[in-house]
Design brief:
mainly beta; 7-stranded mixed beta sheet; 4-stranded antiparallel beta sheet; 11 strands; 0% helix; globular
């Protein structure tokens, strides 16, 4: 089955850094648009970043300049490096993938365009 598994969440102080990992199985990341979403308690899911299969990145304004996506093709893994973390970054973070061809050239952060979702990993930013 197609599967995405996130890891690396935890408790971090404001201003600190954390790296999330996403491991893909059943498919290769290079054929998909990959993104990260998050959902804070009591709030809707928010798209924070994506990379199209053509290699174009997008970041939400809320994380631009602080979060960076990267990929290890040999390990079929995607990473989200988070720095300068703020309490408002506290949320469950999800790795997501889209197989839709309309996303190949330019990805977006609309959740309905992603047809594969991980189980989520909790990130808590607190002093």
């Amino acid at each position: 089955q197609l599967r995405l598994v996130e890891s690396g969440g935890g408790l971090v102080q404001p201003g600190g850094s954390l790296r999330l990992s996403c491991t893909a199985s059943g498919f290769h990341l290079r054929h998909y648009t990959i993104g990260w979403f998050r959902q804070a308690a009591g709030k809707e899911r928010e798209g924070i970043s994506c990379i199209s299969s053509s290699g174009r990145f997008k970041y939400a304004d809320s994380v631009k300049g602080r979060f960076t996506m990267s990929r290890d093709r040999d390990k079929n893994m995607e990473y989200l490096q988070m720095s300068s973390l703020k309490p408002e970054d506290t949320a469950v973070y999800y790795c997501v993938a889209s197989s839709y061809r309309k996303m190949d050239n330019e990805c977006d952060l609309w959740s309905n365009n992603y047809d594969n979702w991980g189980q989520g990993t909790q990130v808590t930013v607190s002093s």
